[in-house]
Each structure stands twice: as C-alpha cells, then as structure tokens.
Protein: CopG family transcriptional regulator
Organism: Slackia equolifaciens
Amino acid sequence: MDKFENGEDVLDYFDVDNAELIYPESVSGTRRVNVDFPLWVVDALDREAKRIGVGRQAVIKTWIVQHLDEMGERPA
C-alpha cells in the first residue's frame, strides 16, 4: 500500500490481462446479474433470437421489460 500512496507503479500487483471494468449502478444505471436457466429455456431463447435476428441477451431483456411493463413496474 505504501507504493500506491507514494504514487509508485503498482500494476505488477494486478492481472491486467483479465481485468474487467464494472461501472457502479449510480454511473451506468445498470447492474450485471447472472441467471441460470434450464437447457430447454436456453434452446428456446436461442431459437427466438435466431428467428428475429438478434442475440440471446436482447431477447431476454426485451421479454423481461415487456413483462414488467404489463405489470406496471416501469419507473416513472
């Protein structure tokens, strides 16, 4: 910690090849989540994504937002 506080190079202490930049929710307005699905759900998502020409994540986001809109859950 002394090196950092003295303004010295501390990059040798970091795995920069595998670094991941994560923005705080207050900055990006998003939060990363991981969800485990049964294989049949992933297969169905992939079929729908291929059918409409988008990625799986776009299908998941769209369906969840549509459902929340139907429930009246979208923030004002």
Observations:
- The chain has one domain: 2-70.
- The chain has a mean pLDDT of 87.
- The CA atoms of residues 9 and 27 lie 27 Å apart.
- The two ends are 45 Å apart (CA to CA).
